[in-house]
Design a protein that fits this description.
The complex is a heterodimer of chains A (428) and B (286). Chain A is α/β, with parallel strands linked by helices and 428 residues long. Chain A is built from 18 helices and eleven strands. In chain A, strand 4 and strand 5 form a beta hairpin. In chain A, helix 9 packs across helix 10 and helix 17 packs antiparallel against helix 18. The radius of gyration of chain A is 24 Å and the shape is globular. Chain B is mainly alpha-helical. Classes of the chains: A alpha/beta (428), B mainly alpha (286). Chain B: It is a multi-pass membrane protein.
Chain lengths: 428, 286
């Protein structure tokens, strides 16, 4: 009896081995000239669309792409790099890790093989600078998120007779009006598991750009001004004009703190609407309930200017592609990815914004995406998400938790002093 | 008389407590199961317990999550990969561990205790610590990204516990059986195959389940040693890539969890009778 089980298990294993070795190879393996391994956080529809964008390259050159996806990119990449088995290319969710990898000499300087003039023609200087470390370019930015957006439901808006605010004061006046009508203006959600608080940091960054301007913002990112600086404090206080008022937020501050960032916008689409406004990045459309239509059910307006001197800057985040193994196949793929063609393919499939100026605005599938992309490309002032650039102990630590403490009602000075003390250590 | 009454009362009480504990224990899984049958908009707007307001309104349930997961690209390949990884990674360590455990339990040789202490000591080594050094060795030997590499890795990670469990089990088998066998001229080899193994089927079965579940559910080890390319990625890696980078479509994972649970459940129920069977039933019959 036991023997029979053992024998059948062994047979099963053998048969399965046979089946798998005969199974038709998936699309990515068509390669003749070997495959470039790519490690990244993309999954689901993002990954499908990225594959689609790379497919013409494989057809033309015979070089395939073997994509390895993991959402715990930092851990897997660090391990693989340490062990001497890095992927050829990696897609990093923010420049912070790129700087670390570049510092340790793990990245390939792309100016060695890339036509830099062409790259500079396609990418604005700010993007090239962000992807450089000590003057050498190491990466190309892909898949930008435009974070300076306020989402609303146009139908609900016109039914209630509300107007799109164009200044901060108008925004506050609108919020007051919505409250006076017995409704709730804002749907906010700051919960995001271990990363809770990041949506709040985006708020503060966006406000900071508008109250203090890009120069002070840069100093703040590099910790050249402290967290208790009046400029920082003003930004937080302005943020407090919204999150400090219970009746401004759907579910009050408790609702804001406990609602997942992805679930929060659902309040815009109930009947009657539970809330009217939602400030979040362009990717939030992926979390909207099924069946809502762009233009009729949802639309956005730019996060309004506060100090007229600084206009309407754009805050954003982006993934970037870096190269870890200098092989000729990897070079080819990198060149292809930097060119407009794959970005146009992905942009046409949706859910993708690019900073690449060579990509025509017409390729985006709908008016809304065109507007978002236009904002990014035409922005007079574009700044990268500050928390993504700060050392992890602050940008993915005390800044996150500090915002939550503040929303929960902690005294502002104490909150900022706490962040400052962790920053002093982290920036050393 | 009094005793009888307490006995009569304590039985139902005990049952109620047990049922309550099982209910609390099951609650998260039940929630997950119900969520997996709900449509995305419902999942996002209300809790799973709200279905109990009208549990027989069948329009609120849907198989969409399941069809989406099952028909996703490369799911069949991932299932095969998972089997290819899990079956050898279960059989190899149990084979080696049972030999080793027999030696530790029944054979006299110098350094036996020290060796055993070392094996037990390995139980406390966190496997994350070994990732980088072993991956380095694998690169050298060309084992990174191969099934053989991951079989060896899982064997290594599973062995200390397997040896420890089986040694204790073999050690607890009555000495008399082995002594009478040796008197009849049995070698260690015969004693192992004819006595130790057949008597230990319950222990081997539970060990097999442990190891199978651990390897089947493993994400980290596969991701590090095997990588996540479609050709080799197991089910866990494939399922985790169903969701977008910011967690869009997480509701699919509820269905994915139950799909990946099917095989372990089958294994568990088919091996279950070995647990219940009396450990030494009939072993010392003349």
């Amino acid at each position: 009896m036991r023997k029979r089980i053992l024998v059948s298990v062994i047979m099963l294993t053998l048969v399965l081995t046979l089946i798998t070795s005969c199974a038709p190879a998936p699309k990515e393996e068509v390669a003749k000239a070997g495959a470039v391994t790519v490690l990244g956080v993309w999954g689901g529809s993002e990954l499908d669309n990225f594959r689609e964008a790379v497919y013409p390259f494989t057809e033309e050159t015979g070089i395939g792409m073997a994509f390895e996806g993991t959402r715990d990119l930092a851990a897997v990449l660090t391990t693989r790099v340490e062990a001497g088995n890095p992927p050829d290319l990696a897609i990093l969710p923010n420049p912070g890790q790129m700087y670390e990898l570049a510092k340790d000499g793990n990245l390939v300087d792309i100016s060695k093989f890339m036509d830099m003039d062409e790259l500079k023609g396609n990418y604005a200087q700010v993007w090239i600078d962000l992807a450089s470390y000590e003057g050498k370019p190491y990466g190309i930015f892909y898949k930008v998120a435009n974070k300076s957006l306020v989402w609303y439901n146009p139908t609900a808006f016109s039914d209630a007779g509300y107007e799109i605010p164009t200044t901060w004061d108008e925004l506050i006046a609108l919020s007051d009006k919505i409250v006076a009508d017995g409704n709730t203006p804002w749907a906010i959600g700051f919960e995001s598991g271990a990363a809770s608080g990041w949506p709040a940091t985006d708020w503060i960054e966006d406000i900071m750009l508008r109250t203090a301007g890009p120069d002070v913002y840069d100093k703040w990112v590099n910790h050249e001004i402290s967290w208790i600086d009046p400029a920082v404090k003003t930004a937080w206080e302005t943020f407090g004009q919204i999150v400090g008022k219970e009746d401004y937020q759907y579910g009050g501050t408790a609702g804001t703190l406990s609602t997942n960032f992805g679930d929060a916008p659902a309040s815009l689409f109930t009947d009657p609407p539970e809330a009217y406004l939602h400030r979040q990045a362009s990717f939030i459309t992926g979390f909207f309930p099924e069946g809502v239509e762009a233009g009729t059910d949802y639309d956005f307006f730019p996060f309004p200017p506060i100090d007229p001197a600084y206009g309407t800057p754009v805050l954003g985040g982006a993934d970037l592609i870096v190269m870890l193994n200098d092989t000729s196949e990897a070079r080819e793929l990198m060149k292809y990815l930097a060119s407009p063609k794959p970005q146009e393919i992905w942009a046409g499939l949706g859910g993708f914004l690019t900073p690449n100026k060579g990509v025509s605005i017409d390729v985006y599938p709908d008016e809304l995406t065109k507007k978002m992309a236009d904002m990014v490309v035409k922005a007079e002032v574009f700044r990268f998400d500050a928390s993504d650039l700060m050392p992890a102990a602050v940008g993915a630590g005390s800044f996150w938790t500090g915002t939550l403490d503040y929303v929960a009602g902690e005294d502002l000075d104490t909150t900022l002093e706490d962040i400052e003390s962790s920053a002093v250590e982290a920036y050393e | 008389m009094k005793k009888k009454i307490t006995k009569l009362l304590s039985r139902p009480l005990l049952h109620i407590v047990i049922v309550l504990i099982s209910l609390v224990w099951l609650l998260p899984s039940v929630g997950l199961l119900i969520t997996s049958f709900r449509v995305r908009n419902d999942v996002m707007s209300s809790g799973w317990w709200t279905v109990f307001q009208h549990p027989f309104e069948f329009t609120q349930y849907s198989l969409k999550n399941y069809t989406h997961v099952i028909t996703a690209n490369g799911m069949g390949q991932a299932f095969l990969n998972s089997l290819l990884i899990t079956i050898p990674s279960t059989i190899i360590p149990i084979m080696i561990a049972s030999f080793a455990a027999y030696a530790f339990a029944r054979m006299e040789f110098p350094g036996r205790q020290v060796l055993f202490v070392i094996v037990v000591g390995l139980l406390v080594v966190p496997l994350q610590m070994t990732l980088i050094p072993i991956l380095r060795v694998y690169n050298r030997l060309g084992l990174a990204g191969t099934f053989i590499g991951i079989w060896l890795a899982h064997t290594g990670y599973g062995l200390p516990f397997a040896v420890y469990l089986l040694r204790n089990f073999f050690g607890a088998l009555p000495k008399d059986i082995f002594e009478s066998a040796f008197l009849d001229g049995a070698s260690h080899f015969t004693a192992f195959f004819r006595l130790a193994l057949p008597l230990s089927v319950p222990a081997l079965a539970s060990l097999a389940i442990f190891q199978f579940l651990w390897v089947w559910n493993d994400l980290l080890v596969a991701l590090i040693y095997l990588g996540g390319t479609e050709r080799v990625a197991p089910l866990t890696v494939r399922l985790s890539s169903l969701i977008n980078s910011l967690g869009q479509n997480w509701h699919l994972l509820t269905a994915a969890a139950f799909i990946s649970m099917v095989l372990p459940l089958i294994i568990f129920f088919s091996l279950q009778r070995y647990f219940v069977r009396g450990i030494l039933a009939g072993s010392i019959k003349g």
